Amino acid sequence: MKKLFMTVVALMGATMLFAQEDIVTTFQQGLANAKAGNYTEAIEQFNSVIDASWDIAEPDANQLKAIQGSKKFIVTCYNKMGVAAVNAKDYEAAIANFQQAADYALLYEDMAAHNKNNSMIGQVYEVQGASAFNSEDYATAITVFEKGYAADPRNTSMALNLAESYFRSDRYQDGMSICAKIATMNPDKFAEAIAEAQAKMDMYTNNEVAKLQMANDYDGIIAMAEQLEDAAIAAKITMQAYYGKKDFNKMIELSTAALEAQTTDEGRSDINYLLGVAYNEKGQFDQAIAAMKNVTAGNNVANAAAVIEALTAQQK
């Protein structure tokens, strides 16, 4: 009985030794297939290495290299398959392969590769959505761009097209939400995109406000402002709405918070101009002049100067 037990132990040891040696060979075979472009076969071999590694308590240097290399090259193989699919204009296959690459990279804690493949997913969706966008089929463009934006919100060209698609589909709040997120990105890297997002927010907000003003729906403007993520724009149009309601006391009450919400000289100047108008309407001319003197940028500089001149002459 003792002899039999020793034979079983010896057999188990031989099997484990074979498995340990085999993963290095399998990894080398996987590398050869990957180099030859046989990515499916390579992926199977790399996965075999990783599966077998669970039975190795303490891998040696060569085994560890095989295991770590297999994790890396699985991601590479799926990425290469994605690139090939893009070149063949098989975008669905490209997305599926890039997604596999991103998922494996996340599983094996390679965040650089994860982000890279998510970025490539976004680029494919951007290409897919461009045709619909250029054809003014904004419903289809939104469906495609939303998927790309979910994969890579740092793709600002696609994000801006998604926002524009929302705006042109009468989805003002959705468009504003995308633009507001772009506006918070690193200005050193995304200055051009931020400027374009700000321009879109200003233009489409003015359009929405104009519609509501024509209907004398100032409460609608206030309600719209309450839903905006951009505090600066929300404060400005709220002040404008209370001007429309002739509630000058409310304008003055809101002015401090409105000024604090602004991030640009133009924004602060616009609020000061509205504040000056409110004081002027109330007959508080000294306060009106003081507010107008703070209008130093934007479209109201000339108007503010004219008001100051008129009020100063009036006081003489």
Can you walk through the features of this model?
With 316 residues, the chain is mostly helical. It has a domain at 234-316: Alpha Horseshoe (Serine Threonine Protein Phosphatase 5, Tetratricopeptide repeat), CATH 1.25.40.10. 83% of the residues lie in helices and 0% in strands. It is built from 15 helices and no strands. It has helices at residues 2-35, 39-53, 61-87, 91-107, 111-134, 138-151, 156-168, 172-183, 187-214, 218-226, 231-244, 248-261, 265-281, 285-292, 301-315. Helix 11 (231-244) packs parallel to helix 13 (265-281). Mean pLDDT is 92; it is low at 1-18.
Which features characterize this protein?
single chain; 316 residues; mainly alpha; Serine Threonine Protein Phosphatase 5, Tetratricopeptide repeat; 83% helix; disordered N terminus
Quick structural summary:
By secondary structure, this protein is mainly α. It is built from 15 helices and no strands.
DSSP summary, beta strand count:
0
Query: What would the CATH topology of the domain at 234-316 be?
Result: Serine Threonine Protein Phosphatase 5, Tetratricopeptide repeat
Assign the CATH superfamily of the domain at 234-316. Answer: Tetratricopeptide repeat domain
Low-confidence stretches: 1-18
Reconstruct the topology from this structure.
Blueprint: H1 2-35, H2 39-53, H3 61-87, H4 91-107, H5 111-134, H6 138-151, H7 156-168, H8 172-183, H9 187-214, H10 218-226, H11 231-244, H12 248-261, H13 265-281, H14 285-292, H15 301-315
Helix pairs in contact: 1-2, 1-3, 2-3, 3-4, 4-5, 5-6, 6-7, 7-8, 7-9, 8-9, 9-11, 10-11, 11-12, 11-13, 12-13, 13-14, 14-15
